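[Q] Does anyone have a clean structure-token version of this?
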Amino acid sequence: MQQSIDNQETTLREEDNDLSEERLSNRIAETEEVLQDYSPQRISLKIAILAIFTALGPVLSISFIWIPYFELMTLTIFLGGLTLGPKFGAIQAIFSTILFEIIVSAFLGVGLPIFPFKILGFLLVGISGGLLSRIFHANSSFSWRIFIGIIGGLLTLSYDLLVNIGMIIFLDLQFISYFASLAIGLPVTAIRVASNTIFFAFVPEIMNRAIKPALENISFNKNGNVSNIEK
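[A] Here you go.
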């Protein structure tokens, strides 16, 4: 009986040692991954990709500025957040909005000072893309497309609502004017929401066929996995 108890104790000690070694190896792997994420090479890669997305949004939007109610800034900022994560998505939203306003002001003149509300709207888009990156997969199923499309429509609607609030505050109107402006601008908002819903439905294709292969080619990560760039 005593020998059986001793054998059980020995077995338990061995299992504890195995678990301790496994925990230690997991902790070391996690530490190495964190250090890799904050390595100069990884930061440089993220900054380079951030610069590309930051310039791409205003350029695409201005290229189609003469097509009524058609804009690609929302989609581009969302893709940037989806690729780089919420922190870099927020940075992209700020700089893309600033760059867009500078370029548009040079050609069309200075608009209403609702710039802070535009930044808030696009911050919501960039951060939402970054948060969604944690569960995103390049699945082109119909239900997944519908889900991403609905997200795009809701983000577009939220942006328009925030900008309308900025206009009400700037013009010093009664709050009832907010609903009046919403009613007047409803056709424009509806077209923008509908178009962006369609655009966002193609996000899995854009990620799977364009962004993911590009990142796998330039990533410093030995696994070449897009999800590791998002951290």
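[Q] Thanks! Anything notable?
[A] The chain has two domains: 1-37, 40-229.
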